[in-house]
Amino acid sequence: MKAVLIFSGGMDSTTLLYDLIDQGYEVAAVTFDYSQKHKKEIRCAEKTCKKLHVPHTLVNLPVLNDLAPSSLTRDTWKVPEGHYAEDTMKQTVVPNRNMIFLSLAAAYAIGIGAKNLFYAAHAGDHAIYPDCRPAFVSAMTTALHLCDWHDLVLSVPYLWLSKGDIVKKGIGLGVEYADTWSCYKGEDLSCGKCGACTERLEAFAQAGIRDPLAYQP
Fold this sequence. Notes:
single chain; alpha/beta; 5-stranded parallel beta sheet
């Protein structure tokens, strides 16, 4: 069965890619370049798709940087450090990003005749990202069902899982987490201090596994 996955190259969507392949889906991955500082994530996506022989489409979307200000894209905005629970982490929200990604990925899925569209929102995202919450997923599920004659199903299987649970699942699937990226800063090594790094390190600790990525001293 054909499926399209919104694939960032981060640990959640990479786990989901391995998961879908394990379930027997014929997966096509789509990645968005929206001028994010952490472009290393895109290179990870390309590497993983090549390794797994998954068709991969990279969509250039620089206009999102012009329309939707965020510390993830604006050079003049410093990426905040700390936990996702802190109010400063709202600076990392790219306004309406997932609705835009889902709309474009839906067009692609309909075009290739895929029945399912997947993205890897999870329970840890709920507090900080409105477009990863169950209410948003429910509304988008309805919208994508109605948007075309082709019946497209939005599937978000990790919606109620913690990031630690996702790591545990990924280890069982043989996910190469060394080929993933999380850090929001565009540097050679992960900073270990931004919200994405903090959440990633917590997830590996919860899973009782060491993160294979190297971090700045």
